[in-house]
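HUMAN: You are asked to prepare a plain-text protein record giving the amino acid sequence and the backbone structure tokens, both parts labelled.

ASSISTANT:
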Amino acid sequence: MELSTIIGLVGGLVLLATGIAANGPLMGFVDPPSMFITFGGSIMAMLVNYPFITFKESARALKHLFFAKQLDTEGTIEEIVGFAKKARREGLLALEDEIQHSNDAFLKKGIQLIVDGTDPELVRNILEIELSFMEERHKSIRSFFESWAALAPGFGMIGTVIGLIQMLSTLDDVATIGPKMGVALITTFYGALWANLVCTPAAGKLSKRSGEEMFLRQIMIEGILSIQAGENPRIVEEKLKAFLSPSQRSHLKTDRSDRDERARSIA
């Protein structure tokens, strides 16, 4: 579970509610008509802008904000190096059974391509095309939330204008001016809150997740092509470690040393 998302959303709402309650009644900021204008209006505008399929994909993508799949870059490099060692000893055909134990469909597809004897340039093209379309799907979902972040404050302003028009229509009743002005401004508050606490942060986190996944896929492509080229497993490892930061490289060495020590103790 992604605790940072939960802490950010819940903490943001609690702090806002605390700040509001410290200076007045909290229920004064609850206004159903303003919600209908801000949220209902922006959702309808999003329907004009995007097809239903994008709504479904974006709703599914929200799970990555709360239940993100942890990408194990170091573990993936070790897995690829293991494939390289087996291919070096027994040949590429020996990987056909080995890849069945892998949990990553992209890596399995790439290894299967080289096992089938596909030309290296064609392997790169196929995997990069898949990577490109994956990136486009991710961009579409990010743009969905970015568009919503842009539309929500606009509908908040529309609600404010509606409230001001209604206030001016009863300007002769001075006692109603203050309350109606407050209600008019609540729609702007809703729009700004939804855009800045939900939509923009969601787009940012999904962008980060996408970048991490794309980065891992690039490592896989280089590893797969290195295996196909018959490179020494140690060279493959050093090449893939070049993608990592110095701290990640030292962590990779530590993990391997621990495993080697356990293997020797068992033997």
